[in-house]
Amino acid sequence: MSRIGRLPVAVPAGVQVNVNGNEVSVKGPKGELKRLFPATVEIKLDGEQVIVARSSEEASVRAMHGTTRALINNMVVGVSTGFTKVLEIEGVGYRVELDGKKAVLYVGYSHSVTFEPPVGISFEVDTKTCQLKVSGSDVELVGQVAADIRKVRPPEPYKGKGIHYLGEKIRRKAGKTGKGK
Q1: In whole angstroms, what separates CA 155 from the centre of its chain?
Q2: Between 20 and 30 A from 65 (CA), which of 7, 42, 55, 85?
Q3: In the listed set 26, 55, 80, which residue is the last one of a domain according to the structure?
Q4: Full domain range(s) for residue 94
Q5: pTM for the full model?
Q6: Among 80, 102, 132, residue at a domain's last position
Q7: Are residues 101 and 124 in the same domain?
Q8: Per the domain annotation, does 2 fall within a domain?
Q9: Based on the domain organization, do 139 and 122 belong to the same domain?
């Protein structure tokens, strides 16, 4: 039995979970999420808990057992507290600004790069530390938007300039050495 899959998902106060066959919808203060799961996994609502069970012991079904439970847990956490990814912009003259809801990046190109947030995503900018916070209720969407922004100017290994996640270790390389003999 999957160690993750057999754990029940606790539903906090203020969050509604509806299970309709294999479709799970979760509604809370931060938004509403819906997802369709494979028919090989049974999802039941038991009071203030969501329980995930599998129908057989096949490898593919066992793999989906823990994955389904983790996805439901991410949905519940997302609509109750939300998810945030913090990106740091490092480099001389590199900065980020908010233009309405859009994030405008100045990262060494001859032009600025503008990011329009998708539905359910919001941006926050701290100009002192040059950080961009990507927030939302859907963990996959938050991660994908943060990855797309990082892709504009990934950190380079010589000076460490570019866009990277907060706390991300950048492997540094030694530059060229002096004139050889």
Answers
A1: 19
A2: 85
A3: 80
A4: 83-165
A5: 0.88
A6: 80
A7: yes
A8: no
A9: yes
